Amino acid sequence: MRRAWFWYLVAAPLAALALLPAAAGAAVSDLQVHEAVERAVTWIRAEQEPDGSLGSNGGLDPAWSLLGLAGAGVNAADLSAGAGDSSAQSYYLSLWTNRSDSVWTSTGTPQASDYERVITLANAAGLDPLRLSSQQNLLAKLATFDHAGYFGSKGTFNQTMFALIALDQMPVPSWLVEQVAEIVEANAHEDGGYTFATVETQAAYEHKGEVDLTGAAIAGLCGAGRTTASPAVQKAIAFLEAIAGEGSLGDADSVSWALDGLGACGVKRGSNEWTAVDEHTVESLLSQQLPDGGWASSPAGDMSNFYATQDALRALDAPGFDVEPPTRLDPAEPVRRQPPSVAVGTTVPVVLAIDSGFGDIQLCSTAAPAGATLPEVLLAAQTHSEPAGCVAKLQVDAEGISSLDGAMPASGSGGWKLSLDDGSEQNAAGQNVGFGEVVGLRLEDPAPLGVSDSALAFAQQAVDGAGGTRELTLTNRLGVPVNVLSPRVGGADGGDYQVTAQTCVGVSLAAGASCAVTIAFTPSTSGERDALLEVATEGQGTVAIELHGEGSNSEPGGQQEQPGGPPTEQGSHQTSLEPDNSPQTKPGKPVKLRIKGLNAKRLLLQLGGSTRLEVRIELLSANPHHARPKHVKTITIAVHKAGEKKLALPHLAAGRYRVTVTTAGASVTRTLTIHAQTARQS
Known about the structure:
Layout: H1 30-45, H2 65-71, H3 88-96, H4 112-124, H5 138-143, E1 146-147, E2 150-151, H6 158-168, H7 174-186, H8 202-206, H9 211-223, H10 231-245, H11 252-264, H12 276-287, H13 306-317, E3 347-355, E4 361-369, H14 374-383, E5 394-397, E6 400-404, E7 415-420, E8 426-427, E9 438-444, E10 449-451, E11 455-457, E12 461-462, E13 469-476, E14 482-483, E15 488-490, E16 497-502, E17 508-509, E18 514-521, E19 527-537, E20 541-552, E21 571-579, E22 584-585, E23 593-598, E24 602-607, E25 611-621, E26 630-639, E27 643-648, E28 655-663, E29 666-678
Parallel strand pairs: 3-9, 11-20, 12-20
Antiparallel strand pairs: 1-2, 3-4, 5-6, 7-8, 7-9, 10-13, 13-18, 14-17, 15-19, 16-18, 19-20, 21-29, 22-29, 23-24, 24-27, 25-26, 25-28, 28-29
Helix pairs in contact: 1-13, 2-13, 4-6, 6-7, 6-9, 9-10, 9-11, 11-12, 11-13
């Protein structure tokens, strides 16, 4: 048999399957099971050390027993060797938050399986895997091993199975769990069982399944919402029961993992789907218990083994891997340990799950200040994430996230949706992300074409003057070829924009292939000139890109005060919204003030009444990492009523700016980063 060593990636040889001894014909009584569980708990507790650890386990993690102990009603906070000794909960919290994870991982080099294992164990021990400490977020560590739904190496597929078990217990979006569940289903072998290997060849498909891994696989699938009626689960259970019927499940470890899989799918003693073969399996397991309460590593053994004992205990009292911590000895004491308090602004790990549509799902982690806004978290991921490249390009407008890595909604519908800790979805905008919260981002109604920019901003241009051009790149995000129709410019000022060149129409755009559209701006009058570029596909929807420009009665820049730092470039402005201050009270009658949106062209305010309004723009630096404020422009206007107020900003070249809005009694500051992209001329 293949033992559950697979959580540790130990290269152990495959041991021969051992036949179970013949079991008595009588059914097992609940009392027999209860007494066996009590003896096993007593045996394991006798192994605990004064420091709270559960002793040596032959190279395997003794914390495995926390699952079975919790199932037996022993809370890890109450589990200690003696009066005054440290609890198991305190010991393992200290161990898992050690400065180096190598101290507790199985091989000294952290693997996905290490974090998957400890997520389940910490949960059973009454600890929060997302908030063990300000810097230890186990899911953030696990996310670094994600490869499009596979975790770790495909050569050790068990890591993906146990990723599913771990994700089942975390507040992550259901679509992320479903991605991994479908991968697990797709790697079942011909007989319905599972092994260490993925099923990518006919020979692999025909390879015989293994008991332990099959139990783990269906435990993960049923945790993800599958049932015994689901084809993959149904076939896997038939595989296990066929082997059990032959009396060849193996030793206590294999028998226990088979029962774990069945139990996670609701097939337990007393359930309608429990069979005589299943009952015989429990009888066989009980028959192997030694007089001291433990189990040996083989049916013929006469010395209790820690790993076999904790496996058997779990299978008897809480079959599966998702065990809630039980009530404390003092019912007034909390079942779960309170996570540490972390001050707002402290840099902490953040987990991101991103579904861009068409099967493009990512799990990654970054680091950002606790309480940071969603755009700030995404900007942090753009700078650094694990795996790398989780967020390559971000665009934000007054409504929130408009485009992420070129993915945006189809025209007139959908949009980026945010959930925190798998809560209700809302439009992804400037929400704050708290310590340990899982960020779920899903693109509702994704456009079939990815875009290089969700909005194109043109430099200020003299009326009727020959303006600059901008090029938009479109990429087919579908898995099949798509026919792109003629681009169309519409909207209030659509006549001021012209499609001067394109490589999209008349070709079948292959999956992942790109084409380009070039737009020119020639304003017919002064002021803001807005339009919409729509690019439709044949039967696959439309993508819409906003066009922003400004006409002037003089040469560009002639009537505007320009920053003396970075040079003015003709090109697009990709804007990043970076809120950093809340309103600050000033003397006088206060007027409520809120910045609702800020980009390179506009400032959108929400005002609580009439007031005199001052907007001060300062250039911090052309290099966003060096703050040397330099005054650029001050705008002063009078506002006569409450409500929204939209202000056009002067043309700003690349750089990082501080925008301060002051009214009677309040002041709000935000920073605006503008990344210039040199335009291509037609």
